[in-house]
User: Fold these one by one.
Assistant:
Number 1:
Amino acid sequence: MRFIVKTIVVALALWLTTFIVAGVSVVPYEDTQLATILTYLLVAAIFGVVNAIIGGFIRVVAFPIYVITLGLISFIVNGLLLLLVDWISGLIGFGLEVDGFWWGVLGALVLGLISWLIGLIVRPSKD
């Protein structure tokens, strides 16, 4: 249940991020409203899986770099993870599109802030 709630929160945050950051966009597989919503949910699910598996591994392996840079390297790592989601969704032919590395870093920063704010409101239970 928590995964579903978090996926919806990230999908909503991604939708808002595409309005704020010019270099981040989502291309649905059809031009219908349902297809657009499903595309955002699919991209959010892909981002959740990539962030949990690959992001978690990177955070463990690169822990000394996180300490040395006082956590600032996390902006770069999150931007690269967003670019990885762009690449994975590009393989299926629709989904997230990021115009470059720095747009990815800015998009990841905005996405993280917005999903944190929405998460404060929603607060999924620890079931």
Number 2:
Amino acid sequence: MLLDTRHFGEINIDEDKVLYFEEGLIGFEDMKRYALIPNEDSENPFLWLQSIDTPDLAFAITDPFVFRKDYEIEISEKVKKQLEIEEKEDVVVYSIAVIPEDVNKISINLQGPLIINVKSKKGKQMILNTDQFPVRFFVFEDRIKNIE
């Protein structure tokens, strides 16, 4: 499928790789189909979650475990059933990133991770029931302290 996007121009999306978020994402409940777009720089830890339903919409996402080694989530049985999760190896977890003009202030949402079953191509944004992890975790926190 050919998609004319705001951020990437015209891209070809393999329909077999489209991810389906039955409930959408928080604030974007009507947008349910997405594609993962890798970053061209293989050392860059961010990639893109491109909306199929709204080509102007793309979220920067990343593996939260890269930035918080102590990050942990528990996926409920209800969510496992909803996403058809059978094996732990079929699950990937991402956090939505906010990338401001000052890249030293990049933050990721650790409170609302994206859970994706790569086998069933189903995803869900969960809200964690803990205050251990913030909505805005600054990935370069040490740099911010030195700047301010």
Number 3:
Amino acid sequence: MTEMSPAATVAVAGTTGFKAPGTTPEKTPRGYAPGLAAVNFGVYLALLTPVLVSMAFKIQHISATPEQATANLGLVSGVGALFALIANPLAGRLSDRTTSRFGMRRPWILGGALVGVGAFLLIGIAGSVWVVLLGWCLAQASLNAVLAAANATLPDQTPVASRGRVSGIVGITTPLAILAGSFLINFIGDDVLRFLVPALIALVLAVVFVALLKDRRLDQKPSQRLTVGQFFGSFVFNPVKHPDFGWTWLTKFMIMFGYAGIATFLPYFLTQKFDLDEQTAISTILIANIASTVGMVISSPLGGVLSDRFGKRRPFVALAGIIMVVGLVVLAFAPSVPVVILAQGIIGLGAGSFFSVDLALATQVLPNPDDTAKDLGVLNMANALPQSIAPAIAPLVIAIGAGTAIGGYSLWYLVGAAVALAGAILVYRIKGVK
């Protein structure tokens, strides 16, 4: 969300550190790339640690039964993901129009990080699911605002020729945050600290980034107001007019649906199927995340290089989806914890290749080269929506499966595998890309 309103009147502020929007920087400021990577790492550490581990156990501690805990976790995860979906583009657009004397992006980065700490503290001390839900919605909204504003500084601060390098540095922060969060929770037993410590780390890294950032400044508000209709209209496309883009969106949504339901319910899967205590389950999740990350690190560059070399995208996207399906099926029928870890490694192997090749495919089917940012925002919805829908329907599937020989969580992983397999097949409906 880095577009500037053409009607905006822009001037360079008296402070020499600020630059006018609309100018292309000649070189990336020293320290900018590691600073941007650090703030992304902090946000993902704060957000993904609850998703992977601590939220499940927090809700388990305040729920009366395991069945109630599953339903509550689905509610909190699903509604929170909706807030993330809305807050990220909204904050990005608003930061484009911010006229603070501190700059366009810095108020959102610092303010979002501060609100996030308060939200995670609220979750930690909460004694009811509704308070946890409120805190998680605030956390998702505030920290996604940080992400939107921080990542919008990339075109502000970096020339076009250097953006790939900076993006690559930022890209490794997600798996690093997953590993760091899983490792950190191994040494924290208190519910409050499990949420507060990652949030404080995110705040410190945000403060450092804000202190070093030579932010751009908009001295006069855009004359044209951003209406609700304009905002939501910027994320709409016509699948009949642009069928390849529509099939790409659906393929991404379906494969991400299978992927999105894994981490949320893995703690309950481990504790209920294998009778693991909480600490053992946390340690197992750490090992499983290491296996998944190793798989992603191997397959992500390999998939991209091979798809470039052969000039084909669809076979690699389909193969990546099928590998993820295999991992989900192995996970569903895992007879032991080591097989769960193996399944996570297989899923990571497929996911890494999918994420790299799918993005390359997507850039070849964008409807309008003048609306690249908008269209990529539409595709991002295919990433985000499954993270809301999958946890919301999972409790029903798990409840149905609990009365069968398969088991509730096993049935859920099989449903995810079936949806992801359909997505892998549908990629061949895309005709404009090989």
